[in-house]
Amino acid sequence: MPSLLDAASFLVFKVPLILKTALFHVLRLSPTSAKWDLRTALTVTIIRDVLCNSPPSTISMQQRSTIQDPGVKGRMWVSRVTIPAPPEDAIRHALFGAIRTLGTGEEEYSSPTVAPVTAEWTGYRARVSPNAPEPPISEADKYKHLMEETTSDVTLLYFHGGAYYLMDPCSNRNAVASYAKLTGGRVLSIRYRLAPLNPFPSALLDALLVYLSLIYPPDGALHSPVHPSNIVFGGDSAGGNLATVLLQTILQLHRGTTPEGNLPVVIFHGKPVKVPLPAGIALCSPSLDLTRSMQWSKKHAQYDYLPPPSMNPTKSPPCDIWPANPPRADLFCEGSALCHPLVSPVAAPSWAGSPPIFVCCGEELLAEECKVFAQNAARQGVAIVWEQYEAMPHCFAHVLQGTFTSARSLESYADFVTGVVQKNPGEITTKGQFYAAKSLEASSVDVCNLHDSTEEEVLEELERARDDIVRDFELAK
Description:
Layout: H1 2-13, H2 15-26, H3 38-53, H4 59-66, E1 76-83, H5 90-102, E2 117-124, H6 139-149, E3 155-159, H7 173-183, E4 186-190, H8 202-215, E5 231-236, H9 238-255, E6 265-268, E7 271-274, E8 280-284, H10 298-303, E9 357-362, H11 367-379, E10 384-389, H12 396-399, H13 404-422, E11 431-435, E12 442-445, H14 455-476
Parallel strand pairs: 3-4, 3-5, 5-8, 8-9, 9-10, 10-11
Antiparallel strand pairs: 1-2, 2-4, 6-7, 11-12
Helix pairs in contact: 2-3, 7-13, 8-9
């Protein structure tokens, strides 16, 4: 009941804004009225107002408000599990080796231990009402029912968004359940460690642990071994970043193997195991440049709800978890690490050898970094499936579920995931589409020429933005 009252109070407070937005949209006085339907206009305006105009709140308050579990209901199976940490440190050493090799040697970063990770298996639950309660049975029984209703071999390893310090698998259940339904498969959504208490590379270490646990289940796991050719990494926003840097980590481990063709090996739960590549990765509005050096487009800002780079969460009022101890320039990592390829993957020099990659975004603040990433990978021979939707905001497929545009995007995402699992990877080829607003008329685009900047120019901008962030932090001390 308190949550219903809070929601009612919130809507009452926003009535003037809602009425103004609706009126301007209906009368076509808004610059976006020709591109959006009324629901999109209201949704983006309200989210933008909350993110940009709310009174300042602490990081701990922001975090708590976004990880509250609303419960499970309707057409989804959710089985909660804990992935145990192995007794040895081999995957940690492998990760830190990749970090050192990909870096310049000047980056500072934390040294997290390997820890258990909680997660949620999600699958489609048929033949129940949209408001059907979660059945009062064990997590093992829920997983059994989930598996009985899967119709494909797809396993989507999913990472939620939230700027690495917000949100939770429970925040994305509806979208994740849609992916499970559309692919006929199952989704494992992980509760990776959040910043600022757990900065880089904690989340990446969690992701690597869970991936290997899918392939090599520890004792007591509910799932049987999953072949890597049936696994796709997925994520939105910061979760898209995590999926991408996990892929880059594995690619780096492969670069260090000899002779050519051998897979890297680590000790995992007492056994030597190989670290293979997944079937592909699928990204929704991925955050790929944590310096935010490319997020200044006024055109994109009018369609998005994300705050501009000038509104930095590091400026939030102090609390028990921020500023960090010792203080640092960024919530997620040390300022010196902002351009590291496992923090900002647009800085990665090579994607050669990668499985196919799906990238979807709107005309949003993150669009330019998405273009740079897709273009670089495509030029290096990676199969890239690129989709951009005119006038759409960040993560529109999730925040606008129920609209035709969201449905098209979710279907494309699921088609890619199903395709890389069911087809030979060589059958997936690079292609790009731009979808017009409202009509969704598609036009082809050249993925190898999405952005005007060279790789060198992009890296220079990243480094300049990083240096500005570090300088401002030092001056504020």
